[in-house]
């Protein structure tokens, strides 16, 4: 059963927000099955701006344990929110670069910190992992 209100229909695009993190992880699962990367690979191998964070691996990004000084706050501290700045102000033109420029708060792999920034770094790494020619269609070809 489906029901749509107002101008919304089955064809209306929707922002998926954090559900896209699950889709990204699933797409990465396919790429991992294709042996395109290793979990312990340095993140900078796939996104060179991360070379300023030595020791950061793809596994750390998957675990939201990059160690980057990131604040995922929205309504409680919007002026200090890394994610609000990434989405709407300083980082909106290049979210991965914005995230990579953050200082480290802890060593990679040591502390869990929910981070849309880490997910954006994984998304840009995927482009290198699968190659720019495959990247635009890869989620669809990988999953469907």
TrEMBL record:
Q: Listed GO molecular functions?
A: hydrolase activity
- Is-annotated flag, keyword Hydrolase? yes
Keywords of this protein's UniProt record, alphabetized?
Hydrolase
Pfam families according to UniProt: Beta-lactamase
Task: Kindly list the organism's lineage.
Answer: Bacteria, Pseudomonadati, Pseudomonadota, Gammaproteobacteria, Pseudomonadales
Q: Which InterPro entries match?
A: Beta-lactam-related, Beta-lactam/transpept-like, Diverse_Enzym_Activities
Q: Gene3D superfamilies of this UniProt entry? A: DD-peptidase/beta-lactamase superfamily
The protein in question is named Serine hydrolase
Species this protein is from: Pseudomonas palleroniana
* The Beta-lactamase-related domain, residue ranges: 1-136
In terms of superkingdom, the source organism counts as Bacteria
């Amino acid at each position: 059963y489906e029901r749509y209100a107002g101008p919304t229909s089955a064809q209306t695009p929707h922002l998926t927000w954090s559900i896209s993190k699950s889709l990204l992880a699933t797409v990465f699962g396919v790429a991992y099955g294709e042996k395109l990367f290793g979990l312990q690979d340095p993140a900078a191998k796939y996104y060179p701006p991360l070379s300023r964070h030595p020791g950061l691996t793809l596994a750390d990004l998957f675990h939201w344990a990059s160690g980057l000084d990131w604040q995922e706050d929205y309504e409680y501290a919007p002026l200090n929110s890394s994610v609000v700045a990434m989405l709407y102000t300083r980082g909106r033109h290049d979210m991965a670069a914005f995230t990579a420029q953050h200082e480290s708060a802890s060593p990679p792999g040591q502390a869990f910190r929910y981070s849309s920034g880490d997910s954006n770094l994984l998304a840009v790494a995927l482009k290198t992992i699968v190659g720019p020619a495959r990247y635009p269609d890869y989620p669809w070809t990988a999953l469907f």
